[in-house]
Amino acid sequence: MEERGSIGRDGGQQQDGNGRAVAIADGDVIEMEAAAASTVASSGQQGDDAAGGVHVQGPRWKRFLAYVGPGFLISMAYLDPSNLQTDLQAGYSHRYELLWVLLFGFIFVLIIQSLAAKLGIVTGRHLAELCMSEYPKPVRYGLWFFAELGVIAATIPGVLGTALAYNMVLDLPFWAGVLICAATVILLLGLQSYGVRKLEFMIAVFMLIMASCFFIELSHVNPPMNELIEGLFIPRLKGHYAISDAVALISALVVPSLTLKSASVLFKNILGRSRSIFYGLALLASGQSCAVVTTYSGQYIMQGFSGMRVFIIYLFAPCLTMVPTLIICGIGGALRVRQLINIAAVILSFVLPFALVPLLKFSSCCSMIGPYKNSTWITRISWILSLVIIGINTYFFCTSFVSWLVYSDLPRFAKAIISTLVFPFMAAYIVAVIYLAFRKVSTNAVLPSSSVSCEIEVAEVPRQDNKDEVLALHC
């Protein structure tokens, strides 16, 4: 790039001895930094990929693909084995009548993910870093604990699904599939050293496998389009357990009677051995990619809350996620897959507010993201949907726990001890959620400004009244 330039409040501009553009800003200092084309060429895509950035210069299709990669990672929220298990149950019991619930859930998740993406783009930091700078130390440690717990709970279905898939496709023992999944996760995460684009490409390959298997199975089933359209756009709750199955599609707190393991037997009986292999391959791709993405997100959580160096995070974070997961899956075994997935769903439903509430607070706060804060109707819709999901999870957990406590065969003193421990914990949990919801945001985040030109991005830093120059590095 031959053009050199910088921006000042009054437009004054001069150059120093090093060829750097300097502009006068009447007491306000804004430091702008742009990567030189030669630096980009020498460091290559690896430097940008390692940082997880998506700023790409060049043809429009390359810039589009740069954003598609992170999109593949995000989309795994819809395709993990726990969701697959719940979807199988709903389809088995109600055919296409509950597709509207999936559409509703998709819209809700899309809104939440768009808020998270906007918050990261505007502030230049992810949610863990913002929580680290906003809350006092005890709250930060509590949020960190629940976030790590959620990562482990989200990884468990991926490991279980992968182990079951290896057993279906290759007849490997369950424990061998668990170990292979863990080794593959560590191997794929090692691709980060060659750039995060390589990891994104592998996730895209897994999703291509899932999509291919889905359409192969779909061609065999050949569903009627009129029932599909009616189920997608006409809300209905007919038949036994329709309400609980609809809730399960959103919250995954209701235990299916149809599990991933029993579904494999069902596919074999209906479609035959050869066709059921496609289900096994789809489950393998779903489980493996889910385990990789959740462990990868755990690295960002640990980096944001701990501030450790990147190379330490790369080594320590996967171990913190995979070791407890392997222990839990190894103890549970193939016979307790349903119970483990249900426990993981309960844990995820409990930790959800500790990520969702701060996200809604930060993205709706003027002091955090300034003019980019959510509009009034987006804020209201987001809070209403979030409160519905949190309320559903809390209600079903409380009713299930009370029902289990009343009808269990435990002696009375054991029930009394459990009640004494659990009910105060639930009260503290509700108080913590209310604290996060009503606490005023105090952090004034630094907002990046718009780009200076078509190829220079500007990062704005806090004003310093005792200086009056604007320094810009140029290409």
Nutshell version of this structure?
Helices cover 70% and strands 2% of the residues. The N and C termini lie close together (6 Å). A three-stranded antiparallel beta sheet has the order 1-2-3, with no helix packed on it.
General description of the model:
There is one protein chain. The protein has 475 residues and is an all-alpha fold. It has a domain of 281 residues. 70% of the residues lie in helices and 2% in strands. It is built from 17 helices and three strands. A three-stranded antiparallel sheet has the order 1-2-3, with no helix packed on it. Helix 4 packs across helix 9. The radius of gyration is 25 Å and the shape is globular.
